[in-house]
Amino acid sequence: MGTVEIQDQIEAIRVLMKKYPILDRSRLSVFGWSYGGYAAARISETAPEGFLKCAVCVAPVANFLYYDATYTERYMGDAGRAAYDSGDITANISNFKKTRLLLIHGLYDDNVHFQHSALLIEALQLADIDFDLMTKNCQLLFFLFYQLLGMACLLTSA
């Protein structure tokens, strides 16, 4: 997980930026929720330095070792520990020194448990990387969707 599909996303962004010159390259950002939050973090880690202005990661899966077994095994099969380690978003976070990160997670999320964001927070702190954090004392964050989009717009304009 987090390899071929991430390269596809980066290439799609490149194609769109080239095809539509009206798009402001200096404000390019990614937004994702759950697996999308994981993908947004992986795009930030994998893309060349300076590719993105910011990433908004809502309830990202940090490491599939700690995620729902049924989902993970469906996509990873009998992959060994190395496959899980290579998909761990806490292992390669140096690009977040240049790409602003807004991390959002509900404390009672029953799909992607807060443990995932806690792992990412710890890795960012140990690497002395600044990031923005929003936690909510609720299970679901759907009612915050438009607030999150507004926050993303603020991050890209700063």
Q: What layout of secondary structure does this protein have?
A:
Elements: H1 4-19, E1 29-33, H2 35-46, E2 54-58, H3 69-76, H4 81-86, E3 100-106, H5 115-126, E4 132-136, H6 145-157
Parallel strand pairs: 1-2, 2-3, 3-4
Helix pairs in contact: 1-2
Report the total helices.
6
The coarse overall form would be globular
Question: Roughly how much helix do the residues carry, as a percent range?
Answer: 40-55%
Low-confidence stretches: none
GO molecular function: aminopeptidase activity; dipeptidyl-peptidase activity; serine-type peptidase activity
Pfam family, one: Peptidase_S9
InterPro entries: AB_hydrolase_fold (IPR029058), Peptidase_S9_cat (IPR001375), Serine_Prot_S9B/DPPIV (IPR050278)
Domain Peptidase S9 prolyl oligopeptidase catalytic: 1-135
Notes on the structure:
- The chain is built from six helices and four strands.
- Strand 3, helix 5 and strand 4 (132-136) form a beta-alpha-beta unit.
- The chain has a four-stranded parallel beta sheet with strand order 1-2-3-4, sandwiched between helices.
- The protein has one domain (4-153): Alpha/Beta hydrolase fold, catalytic domain (Rossmann fold, 3-Layer(aba) Sandwich).
- The radius of gyration is 15 Å and the shape is globular.
- The protein has helices at residues 4-19, 35-46, 69-76, 81-86, 115-126, 145-157; strands spanning 29-33, 54-58, 100-106, 132-136.
- The longest helix has 16 residues, at 4-19.
- Helix 1 (4-19) crosses helix 2.
- Helix content is 42%, strand content 14%.
- With 158 residues, it is of the alpha/beta class.
- Residues 1-135 form the Peptidase S9 prolyl oligopeptidase catalytic domain.
- Keywords: Aminopeptidase, Glycoprotein, Hydrolase, Protease, Serine protease.
- This is Peptidase, S9A/B/C family, catalytic domain protein.
- It comes from Dictyocaulus viviparus.
